[in-house]
Specification:
This protein has 10 helices and 20 strands. By secondary structure, it is α/β, with parallel strands linked by helices. The structure holds S-adenosyl-L-homocysteine.
């Protein structure tokens, strides 16, 4: 095929040769041919040697690479990539499992498909496209998903309205692009959750916390548990399942709290051990005394860009001080950050500073990350974003 050609400056081919999937605009020497946003382009070094094929976009990341081999990007390409992603989920027990029908099918760069997220919710695939190139390939992507799932697919919902660059010419609108509203209750490790992908945050659920929620259930027996930034009560349901004495859920969104209560009803006949509060987390934490044995802090990404990193770290510090100061002696704090720009080291340092502030004896028991359906491409360290620590507080 004859693609427009993106020629890199001398020396700027190094990261591509190490399979990093992004070309920054500053690395480009010149572009030959007429190129529009979303087009497939060929990337070469400054001696015209082939390096990769990818989607072109205006912005700091100019090319998102689809393949480092000179091959056609046709229906077979999409089918192959998405099938490989599906097989990984199947091999690790997430797909075709009667106790689990919610998982991330495609995790962008982590599955070799930069700009594409696909989450599977018991028959409905929710697509979130972050690049114009992916958006323009929707038809081929939909065909591949349909072929892979057959009867196990009832609907495909496109939720790219807020993730496609807003200045672009494609006008993404949220809506069903196949089938219509399907079953909204999913099973995660046998726990039921009602998902609202049309109105909920992200694609509807924070699937990335599955394994960490399970760990909470293992530590919850007879504990008084506080789940802060609970969203729809994921951690709370697992704590209840694990036999907690009481569970309190806190989220500033009234809608999230309503769904938390619904999720409790779905799973437990008697929900009297649970109580949910639609209030600000920082305010709630001002005065909790020492009544909690186990506290979960899973705030939204405080920093989306490097320039606000300092403020974000201050936010994490304040929050962790409040929890570490007040948690019961012998208590466990599960503390997370999902900001991509906050590194594992930075997060740990922040929790360290918060710990030192309290003067308590604190030990790290677990260092948590993201699950197998959110794989980290080793050549793209940026795909690792979820970090967590479980600390024991004397
Ligand atoms: N732990 C959840 C995901 C948390 S997402 C899970 O496992 O599903 C972050 C949540 O924090 C969102 O639901 C958002 O409504 C809530 N939130 C954001 N700012 C908040 C604040 N200041 N106080 C309380 N909740 C807040």
């Amino acid at each position: 095929m004859n693609y427009p050609k993106v020629i890199l400056k001398s020396g700027k081919d190094q990261s591509v040769r190490r399979y990093h999937p992004w070309i920054f605009s500053g690395a480009i020497k010149k572009i030959i041919g007429n190129v529009n946003e979303g087009d497939l382009v060929m990337v070469t070094d400054n001696k015209d040697e082939f390096l990769a094929l990818g989607h072109y976009q205006i912005g700091s990341i100019a090319v998102r690479i689809l393949t480092f081999k000179d091959k056609e990007i046709d229906a077979g390409f999409w089918k192959d990539k998405i099938s490989k992603a599906y097989n990984l989920r199947k091999n690790f027990g997430l797909a075709e499992n009667k106790n689990n029908n919610v998982y991330r099918l495609v995790h962008a760069e982590g599955d070799g498909l930069p700009g594409l997220i696909i989450d599977y919710y018991n028959g409905t695939a929710v697509l979130q496209m972050h690049s114009i190139g992916m958006y323009l390939n929707r038809e081929a992507i939909i065909e591949a998903i349909k072929e892979i799932y057959g009867d196990n697919l009832k609907a495909i919902y496109d939720k790219s309205e807020s993730t496609i660059p807003f200045k672009s010419e494609v006008e993404a609108k949220n809506g069903y692009i196949y089938g219509s509203s399907g079953e909204s209750v999913v099973l995660e490790y046998g726990n039921k959750f009602k998902i609202n992908w049309e109105e909920g945050q992200k694609t509807g659920f924070f699937i990335d916390q599955r394994e960490n929620r399970k760990l909470v259930s293992e530590y919850s027996k007879d504990q008084t548990v506080l789940n802060v930034f609970g969203y729809t009560g994921g951690f709370s349901v697992y704590a209840m399942q694990g036999g907690a004495k009481s569970v309190h859920s806190v989220d500033s969104s009234k809608k999230a709290i309503d769904l938390t209560n619904e999720n409790m009803e779905l799973n437990f006949e008697d929900t009297s051990r649970h109580e949910a509060f639609a209030v600000d987390a920082f305010e709630f934490l001002n005065d909790i005394g020492n009544k909690y044995d186990l506290i979960i802090l899973d705030p939204p990404a405080f920093a989306k860009h490097h320039n606000v990193l300092h403020n974000a770290l201050q936010g994490y510090k304040r929050l962790n001080i409040k929890a570490l100061e007040q948690i019961k002696s012998g208590g466990l704090l599960f503390t997370f950050s999902c900001s991509q720009v906050v590194s594992k080291e930075n997060f740990r340092k922040t929790v360290f500073t918060a710990a030192a502030n309290t003067g308590r004896n604190i030990r790290i028991l677990h260092q948590l990350s993201q699950p197998v359906d959110h794989p980290v491409n080793i050549y793209h360290p940026e795909s690792e974003y979820l970090k967590g620590l479980v600390v024991y507080v004397e």
